[in-house]
Every structure is written in C-alpha cells, then in structure tokens.
Amino acid sequence: MHFKIELKSSKPRVFIFLLSITFAIKGIALDHFWDKVQTGNYNDPANWTDVSGNPLGTIPSPTDNVFLTNADAGHITVIFPAGTTFFANNFYAENATLIFQGSNLNPLFIQVHGDLTFESNVITTYNVPHVNKWSINGPGFKDEHLIDTKNIDLNDLTFDVEGVALNVKSPLTVNATFRFYKGVLLAESTQITVGSMFVGVPGYSSDNALIKDLYLDNSIIICTNLFYSKYNNTGAVTLHGNHTISSPRFFLDDIHLDHAILTNFDPPLDRDELNMDVRNPIINHLEIDNEFLTRIAGSMTINNLLEIIQPGKTIEFSTFENWAYFNELTINGSVTTPPGGPCNLLTMFTIKNENDYFFKRTIGTVTFPRALIHNIKTTGGASFNVTSGKVIGSNAYWNATLNTTSTTYYWVDGSGNWFDAGHWSLQTKTLNNPGACVPRAVDNVIIDDFSFDGSGQEILMDYSIGTKCQDFTWISNPNNGAVTLYKPFGYTQGTKPHVNTGSFTIGPQAVFNTNAAAQLYQIWLDGQGDINIQNNLPGLYLYFKGSGSIFNIDHDLNLDEILSIDGGTFNTNNHDIYARSIQGADGEKTFNLGTSHIESDSLVRLCSNEFSPTTINGSQASVKAKVLQHKPTPLKQIELNNSLLLNLTYDFFAEKLILSGEGIVRNSFDSISVDSLILGNNAKLEIGTNSGAGLRVNYGIRGPGNSLPQASIKSTSSSIKMEMKTVNNLCILGKIALEGVQAVGGTIFHAPESIDIGNNQGINFSPNTFSGNLYWIGFTNEFDPLPNWSNISGGCPTNLTSLKNADTLVVDQYGYHEDDTLFVNNNVSIANISFRGVDKDIFLKLNALFFTGSISLTDLKVEFLGNDGGVGLQTLMRVNQFLDISKGGKFYFENVNMEMGNNYDEYQKPVIGLTKTAGFFDPLIICRGNSTLKILGTSHNTSIQTLKFGPNTGANLSLADFIIVNQSPYNMHFDFRNTKVNSFTIDAPGTIYKDYIFESNLRFKTSLIVQDGNLVIQPGVVIKHENF
Questions:
Q1: Separation CA 652–CA 654 (nearest Å)
Q2: Do both 762 and 860 map to the same domain?
Q3: Which one of 15, 99, 612, 988 is separated from 850 by 20 to 30 angstroms, measured CA to CA?
C-alpha cells in the first residue's frame, strides 16, 4: 500500500493532525494477540499473531492494541525482561500471569497509550518494587483513558496526560507508587490502594503549573506509605466530592482534603521522618489513629473535627528546620480525644524544636478534653480550654479546668525498664499498681532507699522512646543503683528525651549513666518547679524548655555536657553554673542571674542572636567561656579564654572584661563597652573601623606585667585607626602594644607602660615619673590611698611617692565629676592643696586634715564637711599658711574648726584671701554652721590684710565664730567689707600687745570680745551688733 502526504502548512500541529487521520483511516494500527504458547517472552516476535492466528513477526508498537489472552493455551505466562520499554495502545490481559523482571540496574517500562484492562484471573509479579513501571501517556486519540484492573497490583503507575481523564472503573491497587502528574482522575465510589501517591511532580517542575482535578466522591484512597501533593506552586489541585484518604504520612501544600486518616507510622531506628509535612492545606476532618509518636511540621487548617483515636499518645508539632514560619494549626471545628482507661491516659500536644508553635482560632471556643498541652501557644482571639487534663510550660495562653490529679509512683524491685509497669508502685518497698500504669507527664516519680536491693541495678530510660514525669525526686542511694539512659543498637535519629514537667531533685548520691551510644541524651526540664541537682550528670544534656515555665535553681550546677535554655524564666538564685557548653535558643526567656558565676569550657550563648526575645538581668553576674554570645546586656564580669580567633558579631557590654586566652578577640562591626578591661598574657584585641564599631572603656585597662609577654590592642585595618573611647580619663597599665588606636572623647589617655607600635593618636605614653605634684584621679573615693593620685593630670595611679612628699596635691577637672566626694577618713598631713575646677562642685568629708602649706581654689565650689556631732565635736582642719580663693572659687564649710596662719613668716598672702578678678563676681566663702575660724598669725608683709573679703560676702559667715589668737609679731588688718559673723573674739594671752585694725565694716550677732591687744577702728568704719 502506497500513499503520499503533501505538507503545505507551516504549522507542525496541522501535520500531526493529518498524519493521525491517515493512520486511523488506512488501518496502520494492528491488534496483537498472544500465540498459543503457554509461557513466553513479551519481546519475542514469534509469540504474536493477528486476530486470525496468523503470525505477525513483530512485537506491539505504541499504536497497537495488545491482547494477552488465548483460549486454546489456557492460563498463559508472559515474561517482561528487564531493561526494556514496552508499548501498547490498548492493553488487555485475561487468564494470565505477568512476570516483570526489572531490577534496580535494569528497570523496565510499560507505556499504555489507550486503556488498561485486567480480568480478575490475572496475576502480576514484580521482581523489585518501583523499577517495573506502568504509565498511561503518549500520543493517544482519546479524551479519556479507562483503567479497569480489578484490584490487581500494578506496582508502579504514572498518569501524566494534560487535559485528559483517567477513569478508574474498578478498585485500583498500586503497591509501590501511583504518580498522578497532570490531567483528570475519575475515581468515584471506588477504592484506590497504593504504597505512595504523588499528585504533582516532587520538586520544582513545569508540570506542576498544570491543573489536576480528582473526582473522588464516596471513594477512599488507602496509602500504606505516603500521600504527597507538594510544590504545586501555580497549578490548582482540586479534590471533588466527599472522600477519605488514609496514610501513615501526608506531605501537602495548598490542597483541600475532606477526611484524612493518619495511620500507624513507626520509622526505622535509622530514620527521622515526619507523619505530616504541611504548608497550608485545609482538611475538613483529620483523624489521627497512630499507635506511635505523631510528628507534624508546618501549618494547616482543620475545618470540622480533629479526632484522636489512640489513648495516651503524643502529637508533636514543629516548624520546618531553620524556618520560623509555617507554625500554626488553625482549628475551626472541635477536638475529640479517647477515654484514658484505668491509667487515665492523656493525649499530649507538644512541640519539638525551639521555635514557637501556635494553635489558632479567630472566634468562639475550642476545648481539648483529656489533653496535656505542652508549650503550645494560642493566637487568633478565641478561647482555648483544656478539661480533665493539664497545661504545662505555656500555661499563660490556655484556660484549664478540672485539672487531672497527679499520681505519685515509687520505683520498686531493682533493675528494669521505665515502661515496665511491674516496677512502679503506689507505695514504697512493695508492688501496688492495680492499673498496671507507668508514670504520665503529670505524675510524680520517687526513687528511694528501697528502690534497689543490690549494687549494679539500674532503671533503663530508652533514648528512642523518651520518658515523662512531673516531679522527679532521688535523694539517697544506699544500694548504689543507677538510672541508665540508653539508645538501642542501630538507632541514629533525634533524641526522645526524658521530659520533666515539675521539680527535679537529685541528691549527691544519685547516679546517672549513659551507654556509649547515648552520650547526647537529653533531660528536658519544662514546667513550674525547683531544680536541685547536687551531683554531676555525665554525658547528659540538660535542656530547659517552655516559654511559660519558671525554673528555680536551688544548688550549684556542675555538668559535663550541654546546658541548653530554650525558654522560660531562669532564676539562678545566686548559684554558680558550670557546663561544657551553655546554649540559649530563640525561645522567649528571662535570665535572673543574681551574683552567679556562669562558666563553660567552650560556649556560653544566652540567646541565638541580639533580636531574640531574651531578657538578661545579670548586672552582678560573671561569665567565663571561650566563646560568648549574648544579648547586649551589662554583666558584671566577662572572661574570654579563647585559644583561637573569636569574632564578636554584636555589641558587647560588661562592667569588667577579662581576656585571658591567647586567641584573637575581634569585633569588626560592633562596639565593646566596659568599665574596665584586663588583658592577660599574650591577649590580643582587634577592633574594627566601621561606623558604630569601637572600644569604650570607662575606667581603665590593665595588661600583663613587664615580665610577661605583652598583650596588644590594635585596629583591624593597617591604615585606618580604631576608636578608643572613654567618658573619664583612661589609664592603660601593663605591657600592652597599641597600634592604630585613636583616643576619642574623655580627656586624658595615659599609657605609661605601653608600647607605641605606631599610628596612634591622642594617647600620652609618658612614663610614671614623680615631678613634685600629685593629681587627684579618684573621683568619689578615699582621700589618702595613693592609687587615687597620679603623677600627671588625669593620668594613671602613682606608686612612686606618698602624699606628704608632694609639693602640692592638685584636684582638677580631670579627676572628679560634679558633686563627687573625697573622704578624708584618717588623720592626714599634707603640704598644699589646689582645687582647679571648671565650675564643678566637689565635697570633702573630713575626719582631720593638716596642711603645712595652704589651700587654693579656682573656678569651683569646695565644701568641707566635718563631723556633725554638735558643738565641741567639730572636725579640726589646720592650714598653717593661707586660704586663697580666686576667680570664681567658692569655699563652703560646716562642722569644721579651722586653724589658719601659723607659718606666718613663710608667705605673703592674706590668711583668708578672696581675690576679685576682672570679669568675675566676688568669690564666696560660706559657713553653713557649727564652725570656727581661728587665726593664728598673719603674713610678715604688713601691707597685706590678714582677712580680705570681697564686697559680696555679706551674710555668708553669719554662722561662723572668728577667734583671733595672734602668735605672730605682726599687727593684723581685717577687711570684712560689711560681712556678718556670729562672734568675733581676740584672745592672745602671753603675747605682746598688737594692733587689730578694722579697715571696713563688720557686723556681729552675739559678741565682740577683745581680751588682749588694741582694737583700732579706722575712720568711717562701723562695727555693729545686729540681731540677724
């Protein structure tokens, strides 16, 4: 037969259409019938005939119809060899055994382009699952493909014909995988049984943009492994009609299921798998009928009913790994749980990881009966209730009524497994457990003196299952028993911890062991209770969880392994904590550290980043670690003993920072702010030059002594300086190499022992050498300790002399703050003191103070405060020369008896001189009360007044008593300028009469007494008694 096709259209679709019509009309498609042979190979051409029995000599092509049936041969056996692709248009089999020999290395494929039909007497066998694959696809001529296989296993089936329907005419079984990638599935009032069913291509595929419609009214899909419909980013997946899908696992994106049943799933010991991986599907009725732990990750909505079938099971919710979203279960309907039986078992709803998980409802009320809610939060505005159960961890978000009663169980009868009810008793010593119960998460556990009756006995806690209780108490251990935390051989997946929802009390004799495989066993402390651990827990993680929990540490903690704090309030009650690693996650938590010392051999991380909801109250606490990560919160002391490079990636605050390791501590982008910095032997600190970076030290830096290898502070850049800041003066002591450091703010940066490597700015490297004066650097502090004084203004403390050897003690603006106080607690004798401020007040609280020289004040107010015990108990202050107040100085005194002017031959100034300087108001001298001014002599220069006041002194001395005991051979001149005094007495017995000359007015309140000497009042001067 010859024919000619002439293609005149440029459109390929027209060519395909014409070619298809030609094949249909001319009858090119052949019907292939199986020959009479009983057993044969599908790809043997000798086994095929036409409808009349004539040999065809070919195997079926994609357009040929296949009939695997032969009445003459009876039951036939057809072998499909491995490594081959077989084709058929329509495929029909009857009274046949089909043997598929595909292997992992040599799979086989059967592509059907039309309908697929099996009669009930067909048997299929598959050498290996998943590698003998049926597919219904290709260039068929039908809008609908029929599949009628009468529950006979197809093993692996794929349908991916766009816009075409697959009509399931009888129960369909695909024991390995059914892939429905595109098209329409017509499967109403039937049952589909599969291993796994994929609706859409796993991963990202262009086929996922295609619409998939599944008509399933009154049908059930039973999956023995997985129902999968994910990553359908743009193509709608619609399931029509009332249907049920049953599977141990569901992986779902945005899809709407009617009734989903979650069946038993117990993953192998070497696999850690979810029951549900969901990203916002809607399920009308979710039924959980799983005898094992049910694990759900992601978000979904339950419209009508969440139904739990098995009593006492755990439903565990989580976000996806490293994802903080997809963390909501929306419950628009009701929740039911099964009766708890004689042990009153509760369904536990809990979370897996540190990320928050929420139950959501916008209106109304949802009630969880016979439930244990563990760290699940709520959102949306509705009321969430628990009845006949309990809320632990996150109890601030739930309303709990009819809380279940806790039962106390004693461990009895020596060695055994935690889950063996034969070891749990309602009383000590003997077994009394009528319900054959094991402790629930709300029950209390006691291990006592009678739990073990021989050495070497143990309680086994299974790592792969996990145990739970409320209060755990084990005080004494006379028979040397142990709790052994172990994992079974072959188990390689995540920890199922021991969860403790109340107090945890471990006496000093309690012993916890782990087998070699369980070194990472976790104990979760999650609830309201006291933590009292008086013994080490070798090989265990201690994990504090629960954003609503309160943990009270009642004893020092000493752990060989990891201490992890995920959430809750952590009260150390001033107890010290040591662990190999201390870690905090993203959960909401508060640390009340008191005066505790926190130490780790490696990491201390109080929160995962500076934005996590963490509050740290630790202004009196100290931390020591190789690596520290914490929220920018002041701590009293931080010690970093890293041996390798440590990058600080956050702002850093502490009262004291100690670098005791030899590794570099580097902060390239953020700041370090401390009161004091201590650098150990060979410590290295590098600070970045970016905006916001820098080192702020408020009070001082100390490095190693001269005999040790030097420490260093340097910029991370070889050309750009880092900023070193302070609010006061900064003293840098010890052998520290400085490089690329710029002093910013503050006043004086003094590094007398440091090494100037280069590129530094604003730092005084002058060594400590005594030049005669000492400068106050103590701010508010005791007056006489030498470390409060420096050889230079604002510099480092001196150790080269004593106060009495100094020519002058200088108190200037670089050594104190406004209203600071110098406490003179001892009897101190010094030469001269000079106050040089910039209008900043300062106080001296005196015990006794003696000056062989003078006092001078400039540009500040000084208040001398003596003892306030009353008359006769004032503090004595002796100034052998003079008090000189100039240029805005102010001298206040109270409860002080001052003796002045004894060394009269050694100076040429008034004993009290208030010198007016052009441009300034008169300086002030004010007596606040209970004080005397005793003048013992006057300058040998007779032209200088003994007392010289400014015109504005006025009433400032109205509470002072002046006593003149002139021991000098010179007359005294008084220039009071109309000043008010309480009394004025001249009493110099045994001395030569001298003149006491008043050059200006004086007003007195109580008395004016002249016992010795001549009172000389110059013309025009008035001495007046006033009652002021």
A1: 7
A2: no
A3: 988
DSSP of 800-828, one letter per residue?
S--GGG-SEEEEETTS--TTEEEEEEEEE
pLDDT of residue 632: 73
**DSSP-assigned beta bridge partners for residue 541:** 522
Q: Phi-psi region for residue 276, left (φ > 0), alpha (ψ -120 to 50) or beta?
A: beta
The pLDDT, as a whole number, for residue 536 is 78
Contact 655, 674 (CB under 8 A): yes
pLDDT above 80 for 708: no
Residues for the chain: how many in total? 1028
Residue corresponding to tokens 């080269």? 800
Shared domain for 761 and 861, answered yes or no, is: no
Q: Quick one: 755 and 880 in the same domain?
A: no
Q: Are residues 1008 and 871 in the same domain?
A: yes
- Tell me how far apart the alpha carbons of residues 586 and 588 are, in angstroms, rounded to a whole number: 7
- Is residue 1008 in a domain? yes
Written as one letter, the residue type at 388 is S
Kindly state whether residue 997 falls inside one of the protein's structural domains: yes
Q: What is d(CA 193, CA 704) in angstroms, rounded to the nearest whole number?
A: 77
What pLDDT digit, counting tens, does each position of 635-653 carry?
A: 899 999 999 999 887 888 8
Measured in whole angstroms, how far is the alpha carbon of residue 297 from the centre of its chain? 22
Number of domains in the chain: 3
Residue 982 tokens, joined? 């309480």
Q: How far out from the chain centre does Cα 286 lie?
A: 35
Half-sphere exposure of 391 (CA within 13 A, CB side): 22
Strand order in the sheet with 96-100: 39-41, 76-80, 96-100, 123-126
End-to-end CA distance of the chain: 145
Q: What percent of the chain stands above pLDDT 70? A: 91
pLDDT of 402 reads: 80
How many angstroms separate the CA atoms of 783 and 774, rounded?
12
pTM, 2 dp? 0.69
- Residues 762, 891: one domain? no
- Tell me the residue range of the domain where 47 lies: 31-141
Q: Is residue 580 part of a domain?
A: no
- DSSP per residue over 96-110, as a string? EEEEE---SSS-EEE
Question: H or E element: which one contains 496?
Answer: none
SS3 232: coil
* Spatial contact of 676 and 655, defined as CB atoms under 8 Å apart: yes
Contact 909, 921 (CB under 8 A): no
Q: Assess contact for 780 and 819: CB atoms under 8 A.
A: no
Of the candidates 399, 384, 249, the one whose C-alpha atom is nearest the C-alpha of residue 329 is: 384
Q: Which pair of tokens denotes residue 123?
A: 């048997």
With respect to residue 945, please indicate whether it lies within any of the assigned structural domains: yes
Residues 116-169 pLDDT 10s:
999 999 999 999 988 999 999 865 557 899 999 999 999 999 998 888 999 999
Q: Can you tell me the distance from the alpha carbon of 112 to that of 134, in angstroms, rounded to the nearest whole number?
A: 8
Question: Which residues make Cβ contacts (< 8 Å) with residue 611, sequence separation at least 6?
Answer: none
3-class state of residue 446 by DSSP:
strand
The residue from 737, 767, 797 where one domain ends is 767
Question: Tokens for 330?
Answer: 């929306």
How high does pLDDT run on average in the chain?
A: 88
d(CA 158, CA 165): 13
Measured over the CA atoms of residue 364, residue 368, residue 369 and residue 375, the dihedral's sign is negative
Q: Which of 544, 556, 659 is nearest to 598 (CA)?
A: 556
